[in-house]
Amino acid sequence: MLREESDSAELAGSTAFKDERKQAYLNPEGADRPLISPVPATTLDRARRYRLGRLRRKMREWDCGALLLYDPVNIRYAFDSSNMSIWTMHNASRYALILADGPAIVFEFEGAEHVNDGLPGIDEIRPAKSWIFFTSGNLIEPRLKAWADEVADLLRRNGGNKRVAVDRLEPAGAFELRERGFTLLDGQELAERARSIKSTEEIELMRWTIRVCEAGMARMYEVSEPGRTEREIWAELHFENARSGGEWLETKLLTAGPRTNPWYQECSDYVIKRGEMISFDTDMIGPYGYCADLSRSWTAGHVAMSAKQTELYAAARDQIEHNLSIIRPGMTFQEFNELSWRIPEKYQPYRYTLALHGTGMADEWPGILLHPDFDPNFSGCIEENMVLNVESLIAEAGSESIKLETQALITARGAERLDTFPWEDI
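-> structure tokens emitted (426 positions)
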């Protein structure tokens, strides 16, 4: 600890302060207790009906006879069905089929059918026919054909057309369905366009995830002291999310001091020094499967920022506030780009390429690039009831990075922030 203390004069002012506003985000019943959701079951039920309805509506617009889902996030969106989500992201062992003129079927991992009990959108549960190499080995070919035969039989018996939207499928599976006469469409695009417009109930569920995330951020703030490692601080967010009903963290983006620049270094056992900037991006999949994607930066030991830290932080705040202020429903992506904050040249080599991105049960479409990277052929329109994240990463040669991000609902009046965790006073 003495070494960190001796370095403090070089890195920042020596006056320590605690921002009491941040402590209010801890569980008011005690930091040793998880947060308990106040959201009524009726809200979740309405959100479930809305989400499945959005997918079916998109299926009609696309004139497809079925939607085949393997992505765990899309299955969660469709049915609120979740089972070993991280494992099934890389082991295609459960899937779902929504038939345009028929039932919605979940094909569940064998022995886990009960995880779907009580989910109203599911008409039928069947055991999944898995043909991944891990469990099939030399039996892949017969298992693959049995899988394709079952899917094809369901499609034919329910009278839909032969246009099937598929979100994610190994080439062999796609080949087998095409051999049976089906045309495959991009189901990931269909699903993300459906997911992009949120219901009132979805926003209520997302607000709760953000509440849990901000409690985790408050825990991180409390332990942001010299002598801690990056991993120790990052673990506080995991802890709050897990005990309060959350799912996982998509990344490990918390770094300090010289490790903040360049960005995209994962948290490590680096021991943080007093006055160094701690910058992070939560990328948290929380309660109800919704994402809280928030970024903040503050100093270790809660000391006053140095002149350079203050300059970078002020630029990041300017970018966030400007881009929030211009967003309007009906604005094209091109129009947003033309009006967006212009990053100064000295910061450009260290920039974050995204200016905005959609957020729901994960980061999602649209991903609108920062102006130096924006492609004028990227088309689309910001719509009411989208949720968009506004991003900033500011650094220059030899400096630390400041990472800020806020999550906003697009209303008829513009962008309404959903998170309230305080920025730093500078």
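The CA atoms of residues 94 and 108 lie 5 Å apart.
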